[in-house]
Specification:
five-stranded antiparallel β-sheet; 42% helix; alpha+beta; 205 residues; 7 strands; two-stranded antiparallel sheet
Length: 205
């Protein structure tokens, strides 16, 4: 079995951008860059240390997940067969990072492993931050929707009856327009609180 031999390549401008979505690819490759896709298509093992972030689209306001390189302009390729000329022909590869002897500079496995670990740590931190943001939004949305139900439903409900239960009991007496609005609110609340403990879900608000 060939041992790993990692070399740094200089990438052409723009080739570290995320490639177009290809539904035929496995989930692990959905956010790969153009240079990664080109190298993998030609059978090369490539590693581009990266981090993830969420950005809001300036026009649609949709939250998008983006991936950016730690080392702008560089990536690492494993060349156990030392087939440098084949790699040079890959679209987006400019050149190799060279060492003091003017040949391609080989990086030890320990350096690549450290970069893998740094990428993994940053990924876990991003996922945790993402979870916290979504949970905060969920709680704010639940509070807002329950406030809307308070304004619509009859006063004087029992304290031990949840807002959703009260809506379900009163919905048939509402006008068609208000009934449709309440049904939408209940549907969204059920979706937002579906994973919450049942006791908390039915608690009065």
């Amino acid at each position: 079995m060939n041992r790993s031999r990692w070399y740094a390549i200089r990438t052409a401008p723009g080739y570290q951008r995320m490639a177009a979505v290809d539904e035929r690819l496995p989930e692990s490759r959905r956010m790969e860059s153009i240079i990664e896709r080109n190298c993998r298509k030609d059978g090369f093992d490539i590693f581009m240390p990266s981090f993830y972030t969420e950005l809001r689209h300036h026009r649609t306001k949709q939250i998008l997940q983006k991936r950016f390189p730690f080392l702008v302009g560089y990536a690492f390729v494993n060349l156990p067969r030392l087939n440098f000329e084949e790699l040079r022909r890959v679209d987006g590869v400019v050149c190799f990072l060279r060492g003091a002897n003017y040949g391609p500079l080989e990086f030890p496995d320990g350096t690549i492993e450290a970069l893998y670990f740094a990428e993994h740590e940053r990924r876990q931190a991003f996922l945790y931050e993402q979870h916290c943001r979504r949970e905060s939004w969920r709680q704010e949305r639940v509070h807002h929707l329950r406030g809307q139900l308070r304004k619509i439903l009859p006063k004087g409900r029992k304290a031990r009856v949840s807002m959703v239960d009260q809506a379900e009991m009163a919905i048939d007496s509402l006008s068609p327009q208000i009934k449709e609005r309440v049904q939408k609110i209940i549907s969204e609340l059920n979706g937002l609180t579906g994973d919450v403990e049942v006791e908390n879900l039915r608690q009065a608000v």
